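Minutes, project check-in
Item: structure for the 147-residue chain
Input as provided by the requester:
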Amino acid sequence: MQTRTAREWGQMQRPVDCPLCDPRREEGQHVVFETALCRFLQQDRDQDVLVGSGIIVPRSHRVTAFELTPVEWRDTQQLLVQAKEYIDERWHPDGYTLGWNVGVVSNQTIAHAHLHVVPRYADEPCAGKGLRYWLKSADNRRMQARG
């Protein structure tokens, strides 16, 4: 099996086919808030388990967060604050997990940068387990560290 980087994958996926470049292409996906450069999206199919979750995406096709411009970072932060206020008011979470997946090995499945905004609840089965819980597990130890 050939492993591709997110950049290679992003070059294969044309922006006209990208579900985040045009959110209307993805059934059940809604623009909740937007700025001139970024959008906060929610997907209906994610709401049964990840209640209140969404993603913040740049309008321009950027494969990873490392490609965002300073102004896109500013708009991402602005939408993150706005999304938190919206989620807090509507679902009253007990915390948040925020994250970017960069590259195929990190489970980036869409070659368009997106910040996951995941509200967390005290009564969920994985309460108290954040992103690093699985990454720090002994099962995730590499066979040989690179030099």
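Outcome recorded: The chain has a mean pLDDT of 88.
No further action items on this chain.
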